[in-house]
């Protein structure tokens, strides 16, 4: 099965890159399942129902979230009627929405997608390792799911690596989101789980994490109240990871970073183009 995971969509630039390129990539690469983090899709802050629908229509099967889940308050309501939009599983009990989704991929396989949030340098939440363990024991790889994708929305690479090795052999892909900068550690762990500490963002990289530079720089220079951070509006780059899984084991057979757009070194699964 061919899986594509894309990191945090930031604002219009990120949305446009996804809308322009994803439908073509789904065809060209014969993608079976696409998961995208959408926590910054609405101007950098959260996601609206209209934007959620637009991203799903462009070819995403599941949209994940993170610490910006509720920046657009309407998400607290519409997430209840949108099973393809998930938020971190380790929010407190009673939080709207779900932390996992099982979707049917294009090839008919069942894909479990889990979203969890880290605790190092983040708002403390419930234990993400226990939360992911719960979701995986309810829907284990091979027994119930044909592929398992875990989006670990976290700041610290140590916590992300710990999650990767914790789930090695039990997930098809463990990928980090949240830092908006892609890491150069795309690989398959010894137990067969594809891994990358951070997927990077879908957005304008001529920016500071997808937001316009001036106000962000000013905040480092002066500790006075300023204006709102606004999403950068230049051409967006798609950034993430592409994984081919084995249909029997559900584990990764090949993996490639994906970076398509103006600023970064380009990367894509070249074998999929043949
Ligand atoms: Fe983000
Ligand atoms: Fe985040």
TrEMBL record:
InterPro entries: Metallo-depent_PP-like, YmdB-like
Pfam families, alphabetized: YmdB
PANTHER family cross-referenced by the UniProt entry: 2',3'-CYCLIC-NUCLEOTIDE 2'-PHOSPHODIESTERASE
Name of the protein in its database record: TIGR00282 family metallophosphoesterase
Organism of derivation: Bosea rubneri
Lineage: Bacteria, Pseudomonadati, Pseudomonadota, Alphaproteobacteria, Hyphomicrobiales
